[in-house]
Amino acid sequence: MILVIRRLCALAVGAILSGFAFLLLTGQYLEDGPVLISLSQDHGLHAGDLFVIAGWAVGIAALVAMTRTPSRSS
């Protein structure tokens, strides 16, 4: 069971990081959405940014789960 959890966490982290790399390479989100909070004239927090923040949180949670799950000694 522990091995399954570790593999699922690794899969989640890999998928999230790959998605973020795609977003960084394209320079824009597929759907930015409206500006929720304006930080300056050209920058702000878009509705699409919430997806990125949620993905980051899931990735960090998966990393924490991987490091806190005890490993089986051989």
- Gross morphology is elongated
How large is the share of residues in beta strands? Answer: 5-15%
Whole-number average pLDDT? 79
Distance between the termini: 16 Å
Number of helices: 2
Major sheet attributes: 2 strands, antiparallel
C-alpha Rg, in Å? 16 Å
Number of strands: 2
Going across the biggest sheet, name each strand in turn.
Answer: 1-2
User: What kind of oligomer do you see?
Assistant: single chain
What is the ordering of alpha helices and beta strands?
Answer: HEEH
Helical residue percent band = 55-70%
Show unreliable segments: none
- Please identify the structural class as seen in this structure: mainly alpha
Verbal overview:
The protein is mainly α and 74 residues long. The chain has a domain at 1-8 and 31-69. 64% of the residues lie in helices and 9% in strands. It contains two helices and two strands, in the order αββα. It has a two-stranded antiparallel sheet with strand order 1-2. A hairpin with a 5-residue loop joins strand 1 and strand 2. Helix 1 (2-26) packs antiparallel against helix 2. The protein is elongated and about 55 Å long.
